[in-house]
Every structure is written in C-alpha cells, then in structure tokens.
Amino acid sequence: MWKKSFFDSLENLGVPSHMIKRSSIGFNDIWKPILELFQHRKIPEHGWSNFQIRQLLNVLRNLDSDKDPGSIRIGEREGRISTDILNEISGGFCHGIGRSGELTAAQPKAAGASLMQNLTNKIVLSLIKALGLPNLKAALTVPFGTGMSIGMAIRGALNYHKIDFHGKPIVLMTQIDHKSPRKGIEYIGGVLKIISGRYGENYYAKEGVFTNIEDIRNIYQSNSNKISAIVSSACFFAPRVPDNIKEIAKFAKENKIIHIINNAYGLQSPVLSKIIRQSIDAGRVDAIVQSTDKNFLTPVGGAVITSPNPDLIDTISKCYAGRASASPVVQLLVSLLSMGKKGYLSRIEIQKQNRKLLEDSLTELANEFNEHIIECNNPVSCAMSLKNVNPEKIKDLGGILYNLRVTGPRFINIHKDPFGSCTSEMKWPYVVMNAAIGVKKEHINEAVNRLKRAIKQIQ
Fold first, then answer.
1. What does the pLDDT look like over 212-235, one tens digit per residue?
2. Which of 139, 234, 264, 303 is catalytic?
3. What does pTM read for this prediction?
4. What is the set of domains in the chain, with CATH numbers?
5. Which residue out of 52, 61, 95, 99 is catalytically annotated?
6. Is 459 tagged catalytic?
C-alpha cells in the first residue's frame, strides 16, 4: 500500500504517468526482496546488492527512537554517540538489543533493532535448517564467542529444567585443548571433569584422537549424583575426530542430564550436520553452539545458539545480564544477505574442494620428508606428522612461517607440551593446516610451499 501511495503522490508534478509507471518497475525490483524478507523471514536464495542491504538497515535503524528528530532524550542511555564513525561501524543501531537481561525482548527505544534481532534469528535458522538440520526449531544470536555461549547455554538449560547447580555442579566435557569452553563453564560456576582423549583407530576414522563412550560412562558412575551436564564436540583441529555424539545423546537421555554440543565451526561441514541431526533424533540434545565468524564470515564476537526446543532458547535468552550490543547481530544479518542461500552453499562446495586440495598437497610434502598425513578424516583441517624434525626446532617452524606471512598453522610438539593434541597418547609432533570456509585455493598452495621452505630451512 505504501508503494501505491508513494507513486500516487508523484502525480501532477509534470511527469507523464506512463513514465512514472515505467520507473516504478525498477523501484519495485529493488524493494521486492526486502518486502519478501519481512513476509517469509528466511534467507534469500540469492545474495543482495550492497544497496539493498543498506536500504534494509536504513529502514530498521530509523525505527529506533534516537533517530526521531523530535524526541527529547533525557535518560542515561539514549543512543548518544560522539562521532559519526561510531554510527557507521555499529550499523546505526546505537541502542543495542534486548531489555532487562533478555536478549529477544522488545526494546521500546529500539523497535528497529528489536525487529533486526528477531529477523536475523529467523534467517539464520532457515539457513541452518537448509544445511541439513531441519529438526532445529529455534536460534538465538548472542554477542559473544563460543566459550561464553556454551556457558550461557548451560545456564539457560539449568534454569529451564530447574536443576540446582550447587547440588549438581559437575559438567563433563570431552577433551578439546581449547581454553574458551573451559572458561565459559567455569564462569557460570561449573566444576569441570574432562573425559580424556584417546589415540588410535576409532568409530570415525583409521586413526585420530577420539573420545571413548565407556570412559564417559565410567566417570559418570563415579559422580552421578553431582553431574548436571555434558558438553560434546562436533569439531576441532585434526587429528581430533568428532565425538560419537549420537551415543552421547543416548547417554544423556538415559541419565537425564543436559547435553550441549560445541559445534564451533561445524556448520560449514554437511558431514557434521548429519551427525548432529541423527543425534537429535536418537537421544537428547539441549542446544548447539556455533561461532558466527568461523561459519558465516563475520568479524569475531558473535555466536548462534540453536535447539530443537524453542522454549529452551527463550530461557537461554533470559540469562543475559543487561542490554547487549547489536553489532554482532547486524554483522551476521549483513553477511547472510550478501551471500544468500546459494552463495553460502557454493562456498561450502569450494571448502570441500579446498580441503581435498590441502590434503593432496600435504601428502606430497609428507612423502618428500618421510612424514605422513594422519588419516582422521577431519572435514576442515589436515594434520601432518613431524616425527623426523628435530624436536628442539619445531617451535622455530612456527616462527619462520609467521615471518613468511603465513598465519593459522598450529604446531604441536608433544615432547614439550601436549596441549593442543587433546590426548596424552599422541605419538609424534605434528602440524595442522585448515581449509575452512572462505579460504582461497592460491593461499593453500602457497602456504604448503612456504611450509616446505621452512622445513628445509631448519634442516
């Protein structure tokens, strides 16, 4: 209706009606995707132009009260900013999202930001369902990373199920040598018990680091009256393989404990999405946590918590202390709209091709130096042994690559410190390289070439 009123108002301005009618065609083509987004609330098939994205953001942010030229703002939090630069980098959403510690609550001063938050949650959920997880029912975009989001998901699940954390403070977590999830759990008062990783042939691959379900059962039997939750891992750096999440989900259902899946960068892998989908159907999965920067190519600082239970997501959203920054939400929305469904799926296909290229290139390198690729079938990264490299010089490899302007490889020298390997059973030092979503083919080729130069240099 507003479009009709707009074009009706152009009459009697000296421009022939047939010309206005013709002009409206292009105008409608620009605005049609925006109207469809509000109607269908799912990710568009094709990516939008920068102009269309900016128009949407203009509509939303101008609904916030700080954009009202006639408003009299005398509160302590009124979206005041010192420079237009802040307006640019925040997307213009200066009031933030949420209200009184509930991320999805409508904010009276920020109707536009509230709409954006709800719209983004629906759009990202539509994409995640399309990636092979149709049994997820709700999503929540939160303004912090994976570790804190895991803590928030556990806290919300405890509240939802009315579990006394003082009486049952223990949270089991399969071993991933990363500090963030541990700190997130400890931050909410959890007492961690780590299920140690093992090395060898496993349920997923010929070799690699894995979690034995019997180890989980044994630890649970010794502490059953104190355990409230378990955190499993769908993804980590090679040679870590995905947990047997389906069996852990059955275990969680059998013993009535909360089950959170750390899926930090797993959405880019159809293999991992299939494992999670089957786990939801087979047992208990309360929530899944994934990073926005690792999966959706946004700046660092956001995560998406998903669940097959929309009421649980609502409870998790009420665990946040205070109003939140809108920046991670607007960044996710912009990224999703710029790619569209087809654009994102095409990036997943490229990621799979790059993962194969990385393994083929590292295999050739391994053969040259009498090393081998650890056959763990990690869908994102590859690990190559460094058993023939002087242990005293492995650290130097990382420094040399850094000076060669290669960032991202991980060197694990088990002779010095096994942290990073997720086990005490690893046999050799190794290097990990990633072929994550967004990486370029030429960067993989050049990174392997420079690793070759670095190994020759220390020899």
1. 999 999 999 998 899 999 999 999
2. 264
3. 0.93
4. 111-341 (3.40.640.10), 343-458 (3.90.1150.10)
5. 99
6. no
